[in-house]
Specification:
Blueprint lengths: L4 E6 L3 H12 L4 E8 L3 E5 L2 E7 L10 E4 L8 H11 L3 E4 L12 E2 L1 H4 L9 E4 L2 H17 L1 E10 L6 H9 L27 H14 L6 E7 L6 E9 L5 H9 L4 E3 L9 H4 L5 E9 L2 E8 L3 H16 L6
Parallel strand pairs: 1-2, 1-5, 2-4, 5-6, 6-8, 7-8, 9-10, 12-13
Antiparallel strand pairs: 3-4, 9-11, 11-14, 13-14
Bound molecules: NADP nicotinamide-adenine-dinucleotide phosphate.
NADP nicotinamide-adenine-dinucleotide phosphate binds next to helix 1, helix 2 and helix 9.
Length: 323
């Protein structure tokens, strides 16, 4: 690869838009930037006008890095086209969930497990948005105190469901969520499994285990959609192997890359303040022996998607900026 890379973004939705913004903001060395979607058209992403091309195998000729931010599933962009991109020499970084739990595919949050990129076979998965911000905060606690159990409740923004989610909040679109979102809180994100957990909750359990390399870690999630535009919040309860004091917990979280701590107990981050920021923000930290509780917030479109994906690409090309 040369100084500048030919990069393709598949998907011109909310994550595609933020990928353009992050590549520009982080000054990623670009020779060419192609935007691909289901249909060709002119589109403005992150304030820039692009001629969007059709996502088809030939569109990946000459591409070094392909960020996938299309829809998931059998007819989704990654299932249909990731192999085509890889066979043409691209490294694929996929925002969707199709390959995250494939043992051959690294599932990477660079602050936590960047080493898992080694030996990748062309496809790298970005974690689920609610998982990413949680593992950034759990990793230092795992290192310092050991983890025995995690219980998390989420408060997730409508933009986590893409453009249709935003339209549900702003224009009353009715098909994005299982219940009306305005003035509501909906404890269902994704479909229900036989065990009663939703797909979002199962992703949080399985992806956390994979990223932290703790395959048996008990993780109990309740994922809730709330009428907030952008920024997922989480209330996290952690049981640890070893006793922890508040000072030690503050030190561990304060030293962790990608984590910003509120100054004192009365300070706390909220989605409104954190939207547009790249990090994971923590407050309301409470410690009682082997129990740690806290509140964490991150921009689901940035650290939960685009920023993490660009950080993976930076790690691949040796420009690592994790803060
Ligand atoms: N939103 C979040 O907070 C978030 C966080 C983490 C991960 N993700 C994941 O990121 C992906 C994109 O999410 P989003 O929020 O940006 O969704 P979105 O706003 O609904 O946009 C989806 C985009 O994907 C394109 N697309 C869909 N199927 C395609 C295909 N088969 N080939 C090419 N392009 C295709 C669409 O193209 P057209 O415009 O031509 O229809 C559209 O531009 C999803 O997999 C999502 O699960 C999202």
């Amino acid at each position: 690869m040369s100084d500048g890379y030919t990069v393709a973004i598949v998907g011109a939705g909310l994550v595609g838009d933020r990928l353009v913004a992050e590549l520009r903001r982080r000054d990623f060395p670009l020779e060419e930037l192609r935007i691909l979607a289901r249909s060709a058209r002119s589109a403005v992403l992150a304030g820039e006008k692009f001629e969007v091309g059709v996502a088809e195998p030939e569109a990946f000729e000459g591409v070094d890095i392909a960020f996938f931010a299309g829809t998931e599933g059998e007819k989704g962009a990654a299932v249909q086209l990731a192999d085509e991109a890889i066979s043409r020499g691209a490294v694929v970084i996929d925002n969707g969930s199709d390959f995250r739990l494939d043992p051959k595919v690294p599932l990477v949050v660079p602050e936590v497990n960047v080493a898992s990129l080694e030996g990748h076979e062309g496809l790298i998965a970005n974690a689920n948005c609610s998982t990413t911000q949680m593992v950034v905060t759990l990793a230092p606690l795992a290192r310092e105190f050991g983890l025995k159990k995690v219980v998390v409740s989420t408060y997730q923004a409508v933009s986590g469901a893409g453009r249709s989610g935003v339209e549900a909040l702003e224009n009353g679109r009715e098909d994005a969520f299982p219940r009306p979102i305005v003035g509501n809180a909906i404890p269902q994100i994704g479909g229900f499994g036989d065990d009663g957990y939703t797909t979002e909750e199962t992703k949080m359990r399985e992806e956390t285990r994979k990223i932290l390399s703790l395959p048996d870690l008990p993780v109990f999630a309740t994922a809730v959609r709330i009428p907030v535009h952008t920024g997922h919040a989480e209330s996290v309860y952690v049981e640890t192997e070893h006793e922890a004091g508040l000072t030690e917990v503050l030190e561990a979280l304060g030293a962790a890359p990608g984590v910003w701590l509120a100054d004192d107990a009365s300070e706390f981050p909220t989605p409104l303040e954190v939207a547009g920021e790249e990090g994971t923000y923590v407050g309301r930290i409470r410690v009682d022996g082997r129990v740690i509780q806290y509140w964490c917030v991150a921009d689901n479109l940035l650290k939960g998607a685009a920023t993490n994906a660009v950080q993976i690409a930076e790690s691949l090309i040796g420009v690592r900026t994790l803060a």
